[in-house]
Amino acid sequence: MTKVIGLISGTSVDGIDAALAEITGTELDLKVELLAASTFSYPAQLRSRILDVCAGAAVTMAELAELDDAIAEEFARAAIAINTGHPQAELIGSHGQTVYHRPPGNTASRPARLGYSLQLGRGAVIAELTGIPTVSNFRAADIALGGQGAPLVPKVDVCLLSQPTECRCVQNIGGIGNVTFIPATGTPDWERGVRGWDTGPGNVLLDIAVQHLTGGAQTYDKDGAMAATGSPCAPLVEQWLQHPFFQQPPPKSTGRELFGVEYFHRCLAEAEGYSLSPADLLASLAELTAATIARELRTFLPVQPDRVLLCGGGSRNLYLKSRLQAMMEPVPVLKTDDVGLSADFKEAIAFAVLAYWRQLGIPGNLPLVTGARQAALLGDIHLAWEKQ
Q1: CB 174 within 8 A of CB 315
Q2: pLDDT of 286 higher than 90
Q3: What order do you get walking across the sheet with 176-182 strand by strand?
Q4: What is the rounded average pLDDT for all residues in the chain?
Q5: CB 106 within 8 A of CB 355
């Protein structure tokens, strides 16, 4: 039994999710007991700086180093806070904060180059400040093997959420959406049927829209209440669905580089001819997220799932969930809470598990998901030295 803290801040940059878990077993016998979980907000100035960098703001190397350390310090504070009142954790798994993600592929200047992904919040600082060994930089090993470096959660989903007689899709709706398809484990050779990929924008465009429409007074549409008062514009959504990313087969991954502020302003310009109200615009962007998920599952899965299990911040958006349910009928759309795994903190739990596997020498990626040439140990281990 190992006590592990999992830490992640996703593409929404809305705070650090921290989970303290007791983990036993190895892979399909894996057991996780969630002891404590909470979200810790970034200081407003730091969040603004992160969003600026994600949007392409120029920084000096000195400024990048300062930002890297500032993020690590916030992650360390979150780890210490979530551990308070419990025996000290033995390990931390920190995903860090993604500020840039470039999938592998061809360009005019460099054919067939490897992908690139940068997560700030260096593990060495977290280990130093907490006194707990820390695993970080999880994506690099998969990318070095030609993989996307994302999504990395599917193997954890398989080990915690598979079921002998039921095919399941686990759909995370963070800033970006990603899915894991898990065949029924009672069927022959089921492991070869596992799939996973990024489905496209999750909350990111909705959050940017809310901030734009409210002049920064709000950062997200709680429960989808604003969108629920509007009506989606079907021709506009259909136009948005022609984006090349949605036609590309898996493996694939994406981020704010593709679906961020610049893309939102393009959507906003394309919406001008339809005289949409603010609520209609939000409803249309929610429709885009729901439609991309539904279409991706229908287009790229070998069979339709018996159920879809939602997690991430978008699973709390009741309007978005209702639209996805309408598009997925008759497949039920539930939350991972309904099968015993926290929807709000599943990603943080996953990076606790990935750190645990790294310590045990168990590969954490699935080549069928990421496109890597082989399975690999994920993450760099930073030891915590005793202070003299």
Answers
A1: no
A2: yes
A3: 195-201, 176-182, 168-173, 307-311, 333-335
A4: 96
A5: no
